[in-house]
Amino acid sequence: MLSRPKPGESEVDLLRFQSQFLAAGAAPAVQVVKKGSRRGGDTNLDQSVLQDHRDVVTLDNLPDLPPALVPAPPKRARPSPGHPPPEYEDPEERLNRHDQHITAVLTKIIERDTSSVAVNLPVPSGVAFPPVFHRSQERQGKSATSGKRSIFAQEIAAKRVSEARVPPVREALSILDPPEGAVSCEALIPREQGPQPPQGSYSFQGPHLITGRGLWGQDAMQEAQTIHEENMAKLQAMAPEEILQEQQRLLAQLDPNLVAFLRSQSHTHEQAGKKAIEEQRPGAPSVEVTEEERIVPTSASEPRQEDELEPEAPALAPPVTPHKEWLHMDTVELEKLQWTQDLPPLRRQRTQERAGYSLQELFHLTRSQVSQQRALALHVLAQVISRAQAGEFGDWLVGSVLRLLLDAGFLFLLRFSLDDRVDAVIAATMRALRALLVAPGDEELLDSSFSWYQGALTFPLMPSQEDREDDEDEDEESPAEKAKRKSPEEGNRPPSDLARHDIIKGLLATSLLPRLRYVLEVTCPPPSVVLDILAVLIRLARHSLESATRVLECPRLIETVVREFLPMSWSPIEVGPVPSIHKVPCATAMKLLRVLASAGRNIAARLLSGFDLRSRLCRFIAEAPQEMALPPDEASMLSTEAFRLWAVAASYGHGSDLYRELYPVLMRALQAVPEELSTQPPQPLSVQRIASLLTLLTQLTLAASSTASEPNSDSAEASRSATPSLITWTQVSGLQPLVEACLRQTLKLLPRSENWHALGPVPTACLLYLDAYYQVWSQQPSLCPEDWLQDMERLSEGLLLPLLHSPTLGSLWDSLGCCSPLCNPQFCVPGPEALPSLVSLGCTGRSSLSLAGSASPFPFLTALLSLLNTLARIHKGLCSQLAAVLAAPGLQDYFRQCVAPMAAPQLTPFSVWALHHEYHLQYLALTLAQRAATVQPVLAVSAALHHSMVLALLSRLLPGSEHLAHELLLSCVFRLEFLPERASGGPEAADFSDRLSLGSGRDSGCGRGALLAQACQDLPSIRSCYLTHCSLARASLLASQAWYRGELRRVPALLLPVPKEPLLPTDWPFLPLIHLYHQSSDTPSGLLPADTVGTAMRALQWVLILESWRPQALWAVPPAARLARLMCVFLVDSELFRETPIQRLVAALLARLCQPKVLPDLKLDCPLPGLTSFPDLYTNFLEHFEAVSFGDHLFGALVLLPLQRRFSVTLRLTLFGEHVGALRALGLPLSQLLVSLEYYTEPPEDNLALLQLYFRTLVTGALCPRWCPVLYAVAVAHVNSFIFSQDPKSSDEVKAARKNMLQKTWMLTNEGLRQHLLHYKLPNPALPEGFELYLQLPPLRQQYLQRLASGMLQNEVSVT
Fold this sequence. Notes:
Belongs to the RPAP1 family. By secondary structure, the protein is mainly alpha-helical.
């Protein structure tokens, strides 16, 4: 046996081994089969070599090649038992057996023999060239078979015919093969379109295509006939369907021109045969072809392969009618007019004539070796994404185009393409990346709302379905600590896994930021690429604090942006396209810095100190836009972004030192505002610049406040930033007259809607500035309060009160309902291309009447209510006058729509943003109503409406509004003025309603009315209880208070928390009870807080108030969930439910749940919020009842309520099968049963196992009327119905069980039970037993019992 080579052996050793192997003559271990390709041959060898040397970009943890468009795992077929696997078969034989190509059939090709063909010499002509004639002259003797022959050839042929030197053209053409364009009789006979199966008996006289011409010898005709006979034999053995299938396969493989030629030959022979038959027939008419008849060449008249496959295509008609004077239009070539037809529907797999590319073809082109093809593919994909984002494919395609592309690996294909060396490919890649990441309309919406009330606050554009740790632990951490803690965890995950849940994180994991920095700094791309890169960076910065931090900390990225696109000096730039914007100020670069600064206080401080932004802000603010030597639009946007960046920095208390330097510039810009607003119509860019200026002045005014950070604040950043402000009140007090003048000027345009809408956020910004101005003025301890109070009165009487009573403002209130996203959920429906892994607001195609539209009244009315609240809080005397705005009919109608029962709004990115601003208006209006209620009495109807609105708003507030929720709980929710029922006969009406519904009188001392009256007196204690149990995270509450109170030095960031769900659950009124239940479950010793009874009693009191007077507040909590919360009271411990106040409150709430109008909605089989399984809860409830109830009737009533017949049989089986001992404690009398007994007895029970348990507990005495009267009546009713039922559809098992149970009943020794089971009639709670009995059984039952008795006697006799 030959040894194998070992390490260290040289080439000489290998050659020696080879010689020994050949000399031994042993069989090789493998067999090499070389088989050339039939199609490609060796032509692809060079190409494969070139492909091996192509440039391949590799990244860490990424595949080398992009995935397929529709990825699927490779499938391996299992060989069947009857067929051997491929390794036991010759590959060549297997390939030949399965090869169905046309070349596998036409394998025997014999070369044509031309030795017997006569050669004709050229015939000399008398003239060199035919005579020249004009086009308009009619040529004589024009041959009908001219076809596509040139004029020269036609004239020569005509000359020869006239001279009679050669045979006619038709005879000459019959000798040789017909050339291309030859005319046959087929042109005169219409043909049927589409494939037709051969008809008749397939008995052809001879072959039409194979004639044997050209073969050597006399066997030529015999060979052709042999081939013909073989073909006919194959056709005779095939079915018509098989013939059509083979015909279609051949048509798909052969060249269309070859098919047309073969068909022309076949039709020529057919016409020749018909003509011969007609000539042999006596008197047969002759056919003549005239010049007027159109002669169509065979190649033009033959249908193409596409026409054969699509017979429904319309017939092609020439677009114009040709004239004989037109050059080269004597013969219409229809195949050259194919491009004038309408294209068929898109089917890229079969209709390759369609223009454009499929997505799969574009994916292949992106990896082409030709850079132009790569750039073209990426450019087309960018256009596809842009159109998909705009919603243009919604009516044409099913599914999401973006989802299809991302599933196919498009994201990493872009990342690979970004590493290309060709500038055109990089440009196309950046355009596609921008189209994918930056949704159209998002940035415009966020920019336009920057000057709204709290408009600088934005939600992170990141998915909320992330795997996060405990929220309570995270709330106590700063955002920077969260980012640092999460980075190592996510760094271990591959980019593909990250991108599946979050596209932005997946991109950042592929070293995207260093590549973008390299493109900006080294390649110096054109302006379009620069803008695309800056737009992508802005989108990355809006993702989260972590992403913004990574953009800031990317080496040399921000330095490059500031140095190249925010220079201090530049050459003048004219209007129009420029080759490069490097070393030219760019507004988008300034916006990038503004978005980064909005992500956090620390980032803003690093930008101001580390990149010399103070000098750049001075540079771009000190110079007016028209003096910047830039295009006007770019200069205006640059100035706007500079104002916004300074405003963001001022929101943290930074940049105050610039105010003293730029004070003259700001005053000059503010004085020029009236002149700019007088331009009709106002320019949009100018309006945005003015609003940004006013927003900056608002923040600078708030910086002059003397309010310092709370001394007990545990925020490290707040303690470090608690430095005195560099802006004093005297420096900002002179701005108010100019801003007020601007406001008065804009309010004059309020009656003209078009001009008013064109002003945009300018009136809103003016109102917000006045709000901040009076807020800060009232906080100045060194000034006289009389000064600001008098100024407030002047403003109210001269401006605000006339505005509040103007009919034009009423029209704005009337349009609230039309623009509300809460009342119009269709405004917030996500688009078809919305992806959970790529968050976007989806603002494309939004209506102008939505909250984000140009006609929305929300920004202005919210700012107006903010100013009115500030004035009413500072000046109590103005409260009643300013509160007149709450009586607007439009506002009242809007509140009624908001409190109507509706489904919870769907939390989409756009709905979260829109609802956040809508809730601001609701909160400010309700706060103003609360202030007015403390000063003067409020109508009962309005007070009840406002209180309902407060409760609805509290359950809808989103993260970031913790301060609003805390203020509502503190001042509005438990306010006695918002409960007018307490003083208008509400308690008495509750008692009267209970007497009507229950039909029995009760002691007034323990009725529901007395409980409600006591609850109204205990409202302060109830408020303290809910402030304790509905407390929010302290860090989030402090940040929210800093935002809404204007405490700039405590603002951590302008980035709100991720909105995963509302702040409070829908069942927040039951939170104290739920907390008590969890505390009891988590405390093994059973020791509960000292005030457990008080907590439970306050919670039950508040729930009773809501159930009685505000039922719509609990509409989102199903009755089954309320029942489960009440059961938690009994599960807390063994003594809580015995307290008299608890007993009365629970009994009143349980009676509310058992009302006839509520009981049908009590569904225990549906999933309940906050509860995994109601049967599990009921099992625990039974165990607790069996252990500690001691026959408590209220406890027993709760046990009996889920045992109704319409509920799951599992609950009844749990009691009668696993907890039979609890039956002895269920002594609730029939008179105290909260629901009718028919709910338990109808319809008859059909569960055999439960019926047997019923019978067993009755017979054994575990269930008797003395211990459990309710269930005794229920069990007797169901057993009686079962033993006397005569259902013919019952199974044999049920029939046997029924007979057995009836026999045992007949033989019972307990006469009372036997009498009850046999003579039961119907339920009657008024009787002691709970049911009526038959005095005498009906005849049918009597006969049935007699037959049963006789049968039993016969059985006994037979046994004896």
